[in-house]
Design a protein that fits this description.
alpha/beta, globular, about 700 residues, 24 helices, single chain
Amino acid sequence: MTVRWRLFLASVLMLFLELSLIRWLGANVVHLSYFSNFVLLGSFLGIGLGFLRAAGPAHSDRPLPFYSPVALLGLMGFVSAYPVTVDRNSSQLIFFSSLQASGPPIWLTLPCIFLAVAAVLAGPGEMVGACFRQLPRLEAYRFDLLGSLAGIAAFTGLSFLDAPPLVWFGIVCVLFIALMGRLATSVTVTLAAALFLLLVYPLRHDTGVFWSPYYKVSTSKVDDGKGGTAFEVDVNGVPHQRLTSAATRAAEEPWYLEPYNRIPKVPKNVLIVGAGTGTDVAIALAHGVQHIDAVEIDPTLLRFGRQHDPDHAYQDPRVTAHVNDGRAFLEQTKTKYDLILFALPDSLTLVSGASSLRLESYLFTKQAVEVARSHLAPGGAFSMYNFYREQWLVDRLAGTVDDVFGHDPCIYDQQAAESLAVIVAGLTPTDQVCAQTWVRPASTPPPATDDKPFLYLKDSTIPSLYLAALGLIIAGSAIAIGGVLLANATAGGQGVRRRFTGQVAGMWGYRDLFLLGAAFLLMETRSVTSFALLFGTTWLVNALVFAGVLVAVLAAVEVTRRFPTPPIPAMYALLIGGLALNWLVPTSWLLSLAFLVRLCVAVVIAFLPIFAANIIFAKRFSETSDAALSFSTNLLGAMLGGCLEYLSLVFGYHALLILAALLYVGAYLVSPTSRGGAPTSRTSAHRLQRPSNAL
């Protein structure tokens, strides 16, 4: 296999394996719902360590990184043997860590997963790093980008096909064997094949389990208590929905009827966001609604509802189903409704590439409720209900509705039942009929906003649980980095101390690229969250954003390879100007544009600084003499960016642009160019500017 093909396949493996781990671990370890980029940070560390190993003394007999598939086998075995699931009797929601969960404690699970992910990804990182030492800088960069694009495309296609983990990790196995198996040594191939077979066996596609683009969905038949059959639907190990007839559900849980009891007339045209498997739709039909737009983000849950809903609600000609994000549908539709209902739209999963953004986060901001109000017909009403678990969360949502509608909403509140609440607000006070009106407590938290859409965070602060976990990550990473540097120094024979300090000095010489990696991760996160707001939090939008980033990076590399480019100071000026443009253009203005115009403007605004940043990287990287060391330094900078991302909980996502700008200014000030010298070998791969987030 040629070096170029090896680099391409190793890059495919690196990204595809990372995406597979993020997806699979998130479905089996509930704790990761509170640390959405935890696996991503482990990937950064692992790939960085792999490149550090590749930057050590070159040996023709260097052993292949068999530790990687062994670590993968151990990780899969650990999680399969000790999955973390939520007690069925505790709640339908997973907002807070106080829920009763079965499985290892969080303090044990998270460090084990972080270290295991780092060990798994170090192998592909080492293979890619070794290839970088054998090719011209920008050519190697180009093949890595092409491999990354192929990895994203493959995983996106499998998500579209609802492929199970058996397929994902089967592909991982094939890639590992292709890259590590030496045909002349049959024992090597046999060992690898045995490891991979042991790995994929527990991941077989069990009956009643299917994988949507967002969840691991487990379904089981149960007795509905009346001689009929119902379905229990769990997602990622958390009880999510119970599929039974509308009559049974209304009798068992009469609060489903509250939205219709609190409005003076039967609604004719209804929008249901979070339609799921169809129970809310069936209840609306039973009330004589003439037309329903049923919006559900997950196509597989919608399909399951079509097949098993006992009322056959989705087959009713009065129902039009839409697979879309609820906020995106509201921004795009021109229809006016008599009732807009947010029906338990709790996603139980997170948007890839953002530390605290759930699929439904932008649905519950003040701006989202304003958009919903604007789509109410005269005499219309808005309602939401769920098991909110905390009274302050009920008050926050009711307060948001109060602020937008200008009058107190109706409230049906059962604090003893996990803070079950139904909130109903008419377009005017005469459009609602309240049995109980919400009264604002003095301690009501302010509404969530599009800039700080953290509905489940009571105060603008970083929780101590996050700070402790991030502290452990940083400490563990420092120890691991020191260990690899010491191993490299020891492998060279005598003069261990001199070689160790030489490597540390070399990484210090790349400190500008360390800052570039941190800034780029923040800029990438800002792009993900911005496009999620503008076009929805669907898996397809997420995949297209990451692919778009890669295309912009690849375009920057090709421009640098083929054409003269402005000097570094000019490119930094363009970069800062692009960040300023992102800061100055309000999201509300973008949302007011027609879809195609909004898409074009958003792409230009988001990808201009990305393009400029990668011109800077490509110019610097082309001068390096040690690609592996520089690349690993940049990866570790990206880890810092992933930790700094949590500052958005305090300052909002818009503030990440300022932080990124400060990091880029710092990178320029410590770069050789700003010191009046020519670029030296102490430059770095700007993480190859490859996004590493899950779809």
